[in-house]
Amino acid sequence: MVVRGFLADGHSLRELLFAAAISLRGSMTYARQLFDRVPHPDHFMWNTIIRGAAHTSNPADALCLCIRMERAGTCWSYHGDLEVVKHVISLPTRYEPAGSHIRDVE
């Protein structure tokens, strides 16, 4: 990855993002920095960063990422991770932007 470039190896990039967002405790800030450098994240990357954000001290970030994902043209699938859905649904209504249909999954 170092020799060929940051974005050249999608598999390694997904694994690194997963490790930072899910596996390594306290590395969500790094995961977000890594994710923000990816010009066209795939579905796995989106789901990984959303899942990681849902388990932080500020789970509202997961909702913001869900909305950002939809605006980027990728449909968020709640079927893959019910834990994320539970966190997003449990957020107070004040976090839900107008026009959002995230709560329809209840």
TrEMBL record:
InterPro entries: TPR-like_helical_dom_sf
Gene3D superfamilies per record: Tetratricopeptide repeat domain
Protein's name in the database: Pentatricopeptide repeat-containing protein
Organism, as annotated: Platanthera guangdongensis
